[in-house]
Amino acid sequence: MTDTNQTKYYYVMNKKTFISSFSEGQQPPWICPTCLAGNLHFIKNNFLHKEDFRSRKNSEEEDQFDPSRVTYVFSGLLRCTNDQCREIVSCSGTGTVEPIIFEDEFKQDYQDNFHAKYFEPPLRIINIPTSCPQEVSAPLEESFSMYFISPKATLNNVRIAIEQLLTKIGVKRYSLNKKRKRILLMLHDRIKLLPVKYDHLKDQMLAVKWIGNVGSHSHEDVSSDNVLDTYEMVENILQEIYSPKAKALNQRAKKINKKKGPVNSSTSHKKKRPTP
Description:
single chain, alpha+beta, 2 domains, 5-stranded antiparallel sheet, two-stranded antiparallel ribbon
């Protein structure tokens, strides 16, 4: 069996990948959550859809076919196209019948349109650095499984991840009031206490907090785009803090700033390995 852990790739989030709506044979370019390299395609004869009870009841009560009242449930198995992986992912959701728009206004047709609600294993929406603490990565990974079902629940988990991240980088959770009683700090106040070296991430963290507030405390609706914008910022924050490349670039920038000019590449001083 191939060890897919050795063949993982870094990918840039493509918002089109996380569109849930599709028609049979024209699915979004879902990326395999295991190898992050291959696409997921429904296995032949493994996509099944049926009208649900409400839809069948409507059909029995109506004199003529009304496509707007047809609803489905579906399930299927997908396989990764990467030959070194070939992961199997289950997918399920709902469906409707949608009109097809033609240039000829007198021509009309319909097609089945499906909406993915659940993937197992969940699609991996952003890259989480391997050095990211489990306390931060766990709520993010849990949020992936809820993205297609509940944007608000997704944002709530992202907010939890940010709270955990602040704790991990040394931002205090409590302060003392005038009576010397310990009180829990609000997320906004904790972000304001970011260490100086992370000050450049403050605006992004606050933006994540404001959008996350909608998921946690508001009746206001949030869209998939809102959630994906949040994920993009969280991914950048994690890369800045936990990615070795980002750390190296930050250290190099400090050296350049200290010298107020170019510095020699650290790799240029490495001795070449003798030719055998």
